[in-house]
Amino acid sequence: MLFVPPIGGRCPAETPERDEIVVKTCLPVAAPNAAQVKGRGDCGSRVVRHLAAAAGAAVLAALVLLPATPAAAATCAGTVDNDFNGDGVRDVASADPQAAVGSAVAAGAITIVYGSTGTVQTLHQDSAGVPGAVEAGDQFGYSLTSYDSNSDGCSDLLVGIPFEDIGTEVDAGTIAVLYGSVSGLTLGSTAAVGYDQSMTAVPGAAEAGDWFGFSVAASETTAGVPFAVVGLPGEDLGTIADAGSAMQWRAGIFTAFDQAASDYPDTDSADASTVMYEANDRYGYSVAADPYHVAIGAPGESIAGAAFTGELAIYSTTLNSSSQPSILWADNQLGSAVSGAAEGNDLMGTSVSMAVYHPSGASSLLAQSLLAVGLPGEDIAENGVGFDSAGRVVVLVVSEAGVVSELREYAQNITDVDDSLADGDQFGQQVMVVNRSPSAYSTAANVLLVVGVPGEDSSAADAGQLQVFPLVGAAGAADVVVRAGTVGLPGSPAKQEFLGLSFSASSSNLYVATPYAGQVVYAVPWANVLSAGTATPTAYAAGTGGVAFGAAIS
User: Fold this and answer.
1) Quick check: 458 and 465 in contact, CB under 8 A?
2) d(CA 443, CA 472)
3) What is the pLDDT of residue 367?
4) DSSP letters for 21-55
């Protein structure tokens, strides 16, 4: 079962069967079923999950089981991302946010596989050194990102736990920062820390349904200062329910920012209101960051009276006088920078991803970002036929000063793009911009767009797929479809596999997760994807009782 949290309104607890998918953006009149991934369902909705949720599972393990602690280097190398023990080899973190820990259903667990040894470490909130305590429904690991928070050369893991209850406030949410060391995560001298809005260091107050930690992102500034961004799309602004907010954590200080800021642009010229936040905007549903910019998605934003149209805001990592990221730009499809028309249920900003961009031919490496924005609810017409929730992605170029232009759009009706439009494909439900050589000029081989298409039928209903596009060159010039039976992945597409809801990447591999059919994370060499390589992907699988291993990966 894939639970898709609502954008508009909080839905009651349900227990669908394994083969169901809950798809809603409002309170349902009845428990939806799997067919609703293809349309609006009982409550006029689309799938809106930014990163795959999970179904129940037991404690997890990887395929290669070496029960020793990670081999310790003398010092943290600081040369590779996602390197929790600092030995210069990338590690893999895979979460099952609804893993059962003991008798606590949906408590959540994360499995770390150390790259140089294959050593496995399982972490949950009853693990030594991990903040909090195991409780049913917390969903530890619902969102994940890694970065070197304390600049010691070892990567740290930022964990979102958005459904943690804080006191009597249900689903208020919290985050945990698990520090790396030469011995591994949580095994060094720096104690892990947890933060929530009941603490004086964190702005606001812990309130029911805030979902603090629903989305997370991290980077470091051009000056080498690490920072994290945390979304809390259920935050109420005054009396406005679920308007949403975001926070930056930098140099030990939290600052909040949202659409209520006095300098936030008026993005809806179709009405006379100058209040930019509304109920169910869900600002903070998705977040992204790179050294130059921060991006925040608000897929519930209403534009010109149309609900769930969606919006995007872009900030500079240069702080304003309130120590907040400085707003550079905010807009939607009503504005001139983004193609298309602002329509209800487009859900612009459901997913966002960003990486540095240095266009070839420039006299020097320019301080620019490429920002991909998913609109999985976009309806697209072709040859007079409309396709409901076919989905679309736009990629924007953002200058350091905040000048925004559209590089191009991506959809399955674009010339030479593989596959074709269909109802409910939800192209763009998840997106990722990959820069394999961030210090070099951008080429078709090193700057890539990965798009999740979880509703794609292929040879089985809702099997899903990924599509990989070089970001240099025409959209359909060299795109590659990734599904079971391609690029070295075993088997064939499975019904309701929903491939494309969870993936990650490094400079060497594309990590493809199958949490709803097989529960395996595959490390697929980029050569398999880009140049028809035939290497066998490395596979990491759930242990006994796993149900959604890989629902979030880093």
Assistant:
1) yes
2) 6
3) 86
4) EE--SS--SS---GGGGGS-GGGT-----SS----
pLDDT one-digit tens code per residue, 130-183: 999 999 999 999 999 999 999 999 999 999 999 999 999 999 999 999 999 999
Distance of CA 195 to the CA centre of its chain: 20
pLDDT, tens digit, 9 for 90 and up, residues 321-378: 889 999 999 999 989 899 999 999 999 999 999 999 998 877 678 889 999 999 999 9
Picking from 294, 286, 312, the residue whose alpha carbon sits closest to that of residue 231 is 286
pLDDT of amino acid 59:
36
Handedness of CA 369, 375, 381, 385 (dihedral sign): positive
Tell whether the model's pLDDT for residue 488 goes beyond 90.
yes
* Residues forming a β-bridge with 157: 146, 178
Q: What are 315's strand-pairing partners?
A: 294, 327
Tens of pLDDT, residue by residue over 91-137, are 999 999 988 999 999 999 999 999 999 999 999 999 999 999 999 99
- Which among 197, 143, 141 has a CA at the least distance from the CA of 169? 197
* 55-75 tens-digit pLDDT: 333 333 333 333 345 556 678
Exposure letters 343-382 (e unless 16+ CB within 10 A, then b): bbbbbbbbbbbbbbbbeeeeeeebbbbbbbbbbbbbbbee
Helix (H) / strand (E) element for 526: namely helix 526-530
Instruction: Give the rounded percent of residues in the chain with a pLDDT score beyond 70.
Output: 85
Q: Is 340 left (phi over 0), alpha (psi -120 to 50) or beta?
A: left
Give the whole-angstrom CA distance, residue 542 versus residue 122. Answer: 11
Kindly state the tokens that stand for 360.
């070839």
- Complete DSSP assignment for 150-190: T-SSS-EEEEEETT--BTTBTT-BEEEEEPP-TT-TT-SSS
Q: Could you count the other beta carbons within 10 Å of the beta carbon of residue 152?
A: 18
Give the chain's end-to-end CA distance (angstroms, integer): 22
